[in-house]
Amino acid sequence: MKPSLLLSALICIAGAFLASAGDSPQFRGPNRDGVFADEKGLLKSWPDGGPKKLWVATGIGKGYSSPSIAGGKIYVTGMRDDEMGVLSIFDLNGKLEKTIEYGRETTEKQAPGSRSTPTLDGDRVYFLSGLGVLYCIDLTTGTVKWNVNVLERFPAKLPIWHISESVLIDGDRVICTPGGVDGVIVALNKMTGDTIWATTGFEDTASYCSPTIFTHNGRRILTTATAATIVGADAETGKLLWAFAHKGPYDIHGVTPIYHDGHLYYVAGDGFGGGLLKLSEDGSSVTPVWENKSLDCLHSGVVLIDGYLYGTGYRGDAALECLDFKTGEVKWSTREIQEGIVIYADGMLYVYGDPKQGIVSLVKAQPGGFERTGTFTVTDGERQHWAHPAISNGVLFIRHGDAVIAYDVRNT
């Protein structure tokens, strides 16, 4: 199956990173949409017990950030017992090459440790601590090049469960969402940390969403979700275009909106669900098209494949569902898989969850009906299974607590 048109739109992000085919240099893959389009020749079914486990690397510390992979290296953040955040760098065989201390991490009791997935950009890496400090690390020297507490610069409050956003690189800018009175969304110079622009014009606090950029009729639009709002801003200037009210539970919006064919899909969890917005010709306004509450994904991600959305709900009657993007019609729903993180590669959905069990399922990405072709359980690591997996060059990488586990999913 072919991935959504979102891929071609996001390729327009100039200079975002220098990544090779098969790399996964940021949150949810090459284009931040959970679609690993370069991955081909993968298994269509798994043997009993799942694909071959290649290795397990431990000692990365507490956290829920995903591994990023580029240039033959694996990058992942974590928190040591002394509350120091560290960036660990491994080779593709799981051998630790370097650790870089960057500063204090959050000890928030529900999810202590790192949350922000490293965003790789040449010889630099960018991420937020759970306490709201934005870091730029120089990989050539192994030191922090600069850091900015965005909650102090744009005065803002920590969300109830602290910061989980993975930052976006766009040309010479690094973009994040402090939710501050002087900037709900901001762009900093990626080399210096100086402010380039700040989005104002409405007030809302930060949520747990990671921003992305899409191109609509030639206009590049930045979108994300704040505590109670789906937001669109001009990607060049940060000027607010629209703010669509959508109140979620506990101010949680953990799913990046998905653009396709002039429309934008958004979703929250705990029964609040989501819907589709139609953009005006120039992208300066949006109009609701449909709403759906059965696919109430909280922070597990949704993928768009060939005009169909795939994702899971959260708690209650949670189920893996397939929705028609244009109409919101539920094509199928199954409680055989309930809450789980969803990514896509080579015609298949990889669903990792639920948070307490760590079951990974392989499912055909097809609107005609649910068909699971493999399953296994992640037994390494500890605490909740909340980190989003990544696939790079035929290897499935899963972070669970203090461990990164690599599985061979190539059809060889």
CATH top-level class: Mainly Beta
User: Can you give the mean pLDDT?
Assistant: 94
Residues in helix, %:
under 10%
Assign an overall shape: globular
Q: Strands across the major sheet, in which order?
A: 1-32-31-30
Amino- and carboxy-terminal Cα gap? 20 Å
Count of folded domains: 1
Biggest beta sheet attributes: 4 strands, antiparallel
Structural topology:
Elements: H1 6-10, E1 52-58, E2 68-70, E3 73-79, E4 84-91, E5 96-104, E6 119-121, E7 124-128, E8 133-138, E9 143-149, H2 150-153, E10 168-170, E11 173-176, E12 185-189, E13 195-199, E14 212-216, E15 219-225, E16 229-234, E17 240-245, E18 258-260, E19 263-267, E20 274-279, E21 286-292, E22 303-305, E23 308-312, E24 320-324, E25 330-334, E26 341-345, E27 348-353, E28 359-364, E29 372-377, E30 390-392, E31 395-400, E32 403-408
Antiparallel strand pairs: 1-32, 2-3, 3-4, 4-5, 6-7, 7-8, 8-9, 10-11, 11-12, 12-13, 14-15, 15-16, 16-17, 18-19, 19-20, 20-21, 22-23, 23-24, 24-25, 26-27, 27-28, 28-29, 30-31, 31-32
Quick synopsis:
With 412 residues, this protein is an all-beta fold.
